[in-house]
């Protein structure tokens, strides 16, 4: 294992870790804004309690996500300076706009929301959380536009004298066809995660409150406590999860066809399809395969006829190019001069097949499982029912974990499936590593990041578990801004 391998591992670990916070932040910001709006419209105390409770979970997650995101950026200069130099002119614009506009927008208005209770009019106060949500969407859009350039480079020209890609059309970067299908897919998956977090937390608290009241009184007394509030939150979270899950499936279908158009090797690798399937035959999709996946001993156990052709082309008998044909095409198109990684006939232009194959299936399977959990919750809580079995605890744990892991699997598939390119067709991953970084230096930074992120994980989990155990605080009527003492010190809302 050399410095390149370790640099890739380090960037992969820190990126996946950071992205655990991102979908929760985007999804919960929308749901908390919805809860707050419901309180302003109805003045039902339950909505205010849910707003403050899930708002606190959102704030904890936002803070930890901010820290991990800042640390992640250090690697561009440390381990990937050649890559940064090559794409710096392209990435500079969208990432600068993300920092100066989107990030400051969400940070500023989150501060107004946290400290604005009783100080600004309630409608304006609720609007601040919607602005926070818009900020998270803008932040995601500009960051994804940079990633989409790596998948499908547009809006640039290559300067042979400097060896750099130079921006020629900023609008083309923002309207990259990969970006236009990736953004809704990522945002819908974030709503899926946010809904699942609300569903899982509310299920656990609903069961706890029912059992607590049942121990004190009789079973019917449980309905007089906070059980109806948590049941409502669980059902709302389940609805968001289910609707978002359907949106993820639909947007993912469109994204798969665009992916096949710009990166056909990634789709072939997702199925471990070594030999091309001509039009009229229809390529099957294997649900489960055993073997080495090297094209010789791979043996599909469960197949869905013609499904891969539909996923790739939109037609059940469409042609799908295989790995072997694409290797020959890429070798002719891009050449191998000066690129040792591509000159190797056994790996040139082909990503890691087992990783790509299984991450694609985990992404789909875990997303479907999360939607199935939402269906079970809606059925179990129908017509005011309150399930209290121990199986409910397992559902409460599985609800947020399944879509989070599905998101991570999706990003691993996206990035591993692009290999050996760091910018498709322009720069290989091996050539993007900092030339002066040694193996020992990467090991040192990787160790420091691992320890730091491990400590942050302990802090995050401890804060979240403590907040969940406390549950929603008792109702407290917000102070009317007109009655607020202007000289009173700012106080944290929770």
TrEMBL record:
<feature type="transmembrane region" description="Helical">
    <location>
        <begin position="391"/>
        <end position="413"/>
    </location>
</feature>
<feature type="transmembrane region" description="Helical">
    <location>
        <begin position="233"/>
        <end position="252"/>
    </location>
</feature>
<keyword id="KW-0812">Transmembrane</keyword>
<dbReference type="Pfam" id="PF01654">
    <property type="entry name" value="Cyt_bd_oxida_I"/>
</dbReference>
<keyword id="KW-0472">Membrane</keyword>
<feature type="transmembrane region" description="Helical">
    <location>
        <begin position="20"/>
        <end position="41"/>
    </location>
</feature>
<dbReference type="GO" id="GO:0019646">
    <property type="term" value="P:aerobic electron transport chain"/>
</dbReference>
<dbReference type="GO" id="GO:0046872">
    <property type="term" value="F:metal ion binding"/>
</dbReference>
<keyword id="KW-0349">Heme</keyword>
<feature type="transmembrane region" description="Helical">
    <location>
        <begin position="183"/>
        <end position="203"/>
    </location>
</feature>
<dbReference type="GO" id="GO:0020037">
    <property type="term" value="F:heme binding"/>
</dbReference>
<dbReference type="GO" id="GO:0009055">
    <property type="term" value="F:electron transfer activity"/>
</dbReference>
<keyword id="KW-1003">Cell membrane</keyword>
<feature type="transmembrane region" description="Helical">
    <location>
        <begin position="433"/>
        <end position="459"/>
    </location>
</feature>
<dbReference type="GO" id="GO:0005886">
    <property type="term" value="C:plasma membrane"/>
</dbReference>
<feature type="transmembrane region" description="Helical">
    <location>
        <begin position="358"/>
        <end position="379"/>
    </location>
</feature>
<keyword id="KW-0813">Transport</keyword>
<keyword id="KW-0408">Iron</keyword>
<keyword id="KW-0479">Metal-binding</keyword>
<comment type="similarity">
    <text>Belongs to the cytochrome ubiquinol oxidase subunit 1 family.</text>
</comment>
<feature type="transmembrane region" description="Helical">
    <location>
        <begin position="127"/>
        <end position="144"/>
    </location>
</feature>
<keyword id="KW-0249">Electron transport</keyword>
<dbReference type="GO" id="GO:0070069">
    <property type="term" value="C:cytochrome complex"/>
</dbReference>
<feature type="transmembrane region" description="Helical">
    <location>
        <begin position="91"/>
        <end position="115"/>
    </location>
</feature>
<dbReference type="GO" id="GO:0016682">
    <property type="term" value="F:oxidoreductase activity, acting on diphenols and related substances as donors, oxygen as acceptor"/>
</dbReference>
<feature type="transmembrane region" description="Helical">
    <location>
        <begin position="53"/>
        <end position="71"/>
    </location>
</feature>
<dbReference type="InterPro" id="IPR002585">
    <property type="entry name" value="Cyt-d_ubiquinol_oxidase_su_1"/>
</dbReference>
<protein>
    <submittedName>
        <fullName>Cytochrome d ubiquinol oxidase subunit I</fullName>
        <ecNumber>1.10.3.-</ecNumber>
    </submittedName>
</protein>
<keyword id="KW-0560">Oxidoreductase</keyword>
<keyword id="KW-1133">Transmembrane helix</keyword>
